[in-house]
Amino acid sequence: MPEIMGPATQEVADYLDICRKKRHGVDYDRAYTLSADEVEELLREVVAFRDEVMAWLREHRPELLAG
User: Fold this and answer.
1) How far apart are the first and last CA of the chain?
2) At how many degrees (to 10) do helices 10-28 and 36-60 cross?
3) Of 6, 21, 32, 54, which one has the fewest beta carbons inside 10 Å?
């Protein structure tokens, strides 16, 4: 993400990578280790990131949104 959207997205990229690694561990090592608070935080972050991506696309690549 930072390579495309700039260094301002590094923090969210790192956060999502941590979540990905945690999900991988949950999938393969143990179930039900995520708290409801962690799930809610991830959902908030993903929604905020989606909004950021959509704004970036509108500004830099609006042709990808057509259709």
Assistant:
1) 24
2) 140
3) 32
Q: Which amino acid is at 42?
A: L
- Count the neighbouring beta carbons within 10 Å of the beta carbon of residue 65: 9
Domain limits for position 19: 2-64
Phi and psi angles of residue 34, each rounded to the nearest 5 degrees, phi first: -90, 135
Measure the CA–CA gap between 22 and 33, rounded to whole angstroms.
9
Number of independent structural domains in the chain: 1
In whole angstroms, give the CA distance from residue 47 to residue 50. Answer: 5
User: 44-63 pLDDT, tens per residue?
Assistant: 999 999 999 999 999 999 99
Q: Which pLDDT value is given to residue 66? A: 78
